[in-house]
Amino acid sequence: MTSPTMYASSGDFRRIFHEETDGLYQLSFLLTADHEKAEQCFVSGLEDSVNGSPVFKEWARSWARRAIIHNAVRVINPHPTDEHAPPSLNSDGKTPAGEEAEIAAVLELGPFERFVYVMSVLEHYSDQDCLVLLGCALRDVIAARIRALQQIDTQSSFTLSGR
């Protein structure tokens, strides 16, 4: 009689990516602000999870999300110097059509602020995890989160006031 393994199998990761396709893709899209790059990060996240180092089954879902974040960091390569980068808008200067207001607000953040916001606020990563994954200083993470929260708060106030 064999005992159940305590490590996630490639099948476990395939099941997670199948069951949570929408949420994992949305994470990828929020980070990249680009559908093509989001698909690339999603697929690479699946491949990395399936072919990567063993991970405990209990950690498989968070590991899958981390794999997507890691791939998005690699593809976008956000840096603190991006703080004055133009918002992630489509070519006509408007937020993507059909996106919910909350998603649109996140997509309008500069790349570094968007990554910090998604990782620390939406995914609840610690400042330490953010700075390690983004390769930056603690002050950069804190400043980017403040800027992101201020910008999103301003956009929310603007939207709610009907302007």
Account of the protein in words:
The protein has two domains: 9-77, no CATH class; 80-163, Arc Repressor Mutant, subunit A, CATH 1.10.10. Helix content is 65%, strand content 0%. It has eight helices and no strands. Helix 2 (21-32) packs parallel to helix 4. The model is unreliable at 82-98 and 159-163 (pLDDT under 50).
Oligomer: single chain
How many helical stretches?
8
User: Mean of the pLDDT scores?
Assistant: 87
Task: Say which CATH homologous superfamily of the largest domain is assigned.
Answer: Winged helix-like DNA-binding domain superfamily/Winged helix DNA-binding domain
Q: What percent of residues are in strands?
A: under 5%
Sketch the major β-sheet: none
CATH architecture of the largest domain: Orthogonal Bundle
Looking at the structure, the CATH topology of the largest domain is Arc Repressor Mutant, subunit A
Question: Which structural class fits the helix and strand makeup?
Answer: mainly alpha
How much is the radius of gyration in Å?
Answer: 17 Å
Percent of residues in helices comes to 55-70%
**Number of structurally distinct domains:** 2
Compact description:
This protein has helices at residues 10-19, 21-32, 35-51, 60-76, 101-107, 111-122, 127-134, 138-160.
Features:
163 residues, Arc Repressor Mutant, subunit A, 8 helices, 0% strand
Ordered list of secondary-structure elements with their pairings:
Layout: H1 10-19, H2 21-32, H3 35-51, H4 60-76, H5 101-107, H6 111-122, H7 127-134, H8 138-160
